[in-house]
Amino acid sequence: MKRLATVLAVLTTWPLLTAGGGVNPPPPGFKITGPAVSATIVVDPHIASDNAGQTSIRLSKGVASSGAAFTIDPSTRAVLFTFGCVPERTAIRFGSSQPLVQWGLPAALLPSLFTPLGITVSTGVTGDNVPVITDVDSAVCTADPTNTLGSGDVAPGTLSFTAVIQFLVPQH
Fold first, then answer.
1. Per residue in 89-104, pLDDT tens?
2. Which residues have C-beta within 8 Å of that of residue 150, sequence separation ≥ 6?
3. Whole-number Å distance between alpha carbons of 24 and 4
4. 39, 78, 87, 120: most buried by Cβ count inside 10 Å?
5. What does DSSP say about strands 64-71 and 54-61: parallel, antiparallel, or unpaired?
């Protein structure tokens, strides 16, 4: 009976485990490749707070670095930030090998982020060198008493985490 309970628990949680990018393969016809770029990301993970969706990202590769600040649009926030600041959901939200533009990074910012690192990227969701987060780590929520939550917002705090960015390329 204990074995059956364990098997059922694994089967029940499998979609949550794989949605985090742990064993998610890239889309058909694509592969994920290097170089690996380190990222530090800080975001207000709420739908309607005073600072909702305000995000900063810093990238580094070797001695080169770049960064940007932007606000994730409301329609993307409505999908990503239903649960507020919950570090355990960071891999599910950001680490499933989806193109950065799909979680709200404006496509126009991509060249200014990656060119200083010596990397040419595609600004869409397909093409050569589409940047994707392949790993997240060290997710924490930091209290922000100056940020008033909006109606329906839960789990206060500002989310920060480190990530590894690699690149989605067509298989030939």
1. 988 888 878 888 888 8
2. 46, 47, 48, 49, 50, 52
3. 26
4. 39
5. antiparallel
Number of H helices, E strands in the chain: 4, 5
Q: How far, rounded to the nearest angstrom, does the alpha carbon of residue 150 sit from its chain's CA centroid?
A: 23
Q: What is the Cα–Cα distance from 131 to 168, expressed in whole angstroms?
A: 6
Can you tell me which residue has the tokens 């329609």? 75
End-to-end CA distance of the chain: 48
Q: Which residues are bridge partners to 38 per DSSP?
A: 60, 164
Structure confidence at residue 125 (pLDDT)? 78
* Structure tokens that stand for 134 in this block: 């392949």
d(CA 92, CA 110): 22
Structural contact between residues 47 and 78, judged by C-beta atoms closer than 8 angstroms: yes
What backbone phi and psi angles, to 5 degrees, belong to 129? Answer: 60, 60
Tens of pLDDT, residue by residue over 92-135, are 888 878 888 888 899 999 999 999 999 999 887 777 899 999 99
What distance in Å separates the CA atoms of residue 93 and residue 57, rounded to the nearest whole number?
16
Q: Are 168 and 121 spatial neighbours (Cβ–Cβ below 8 Å)?
A: no
